[in-house]
Amino acid sequence: MEELADPWLARCESVLSERRGAERQREAGAGPKHDLVFTDRLLVTLVHLRTGLPHAALAALYGTARSTISRAIGEIRPLLAVRGFAVPDRPGTRLRTLADVFAYAEAEGIRLRIDGAETQVRRPKANRPGRRAFVSGKKKQNTIKTTTISDGQGRLLWSGADRPGRMHDQTAMRTEGIAEQLRLHPTATAEVDDGYRGLANEFPDQVSAPPKKPKDDAPLGEQYARREIRRRQSSDRICVEHANAELRPWRPLQRYTGRREDYAETDRAIASLISDRSARRATRRKPSTELVLARQTAC
After folding, report:
1. Which residues fall within 8 angstroms of residue 283, CB to CB, at 6 or more apart?
2. Looking at the whole model, is its pTM more than 0.70?
């Protein structure tokens, strides 16, 4: 509330100033009052993002009009979306762009984990242009894909690059500038899955992807070696799957029933809240691998 109160007041004042078309004639606070104070507006938005309750149900709970709830959510949700993502062990610092994420990873020596997630959306009406653009070849339903980036402990660092479900992960990586960020930060490294193999081929020293499947007539030892390498790579990358799993309890990210134009804003608002919680986890330090000789005891 302390973080969003001033931006909300500034937004309200900007809207009133634009509506008046002139300077304020009365003191601040004069005129009709809001049906919902800022605290209730924030609480309504959080409840809607967490449980997916309809605006009409929230209006009945608060004893107000449905339009008031819709206006409150429309005001608070953009403020949550632009907050950025919390940085572990750096209170007050937030990552808002891909450039911030890769600069942070390069400075701290963090190996990024990158993965995509799909959320089911409503199917457009028949004969609408671009109706097939959201049909996912993997899910066999209308979806929107989102790219998620986490660190080695599954702490969410960034979520975005929203695109239709028909678009391949590799295409999204390039159109959103992730490949360009790898080029600008040559010491930044990442772990990816099979969907980003082309990126691993372009940046072999920075991006690690699972090995290709050998031919059927390949030696048995080669097949076992590939299976072991894939198992280790999956073990290193499972933390980003855990980061995606933290987003799924939020109802809008299970099946989004709102306007598809608002999905990106909703996803970033929820992800920013999740990053606040994940950033509070203590950083695990890897134990030293140096051998320590046991003290010899006298017989």
Report:
1. 88, 89, 153
2. yes
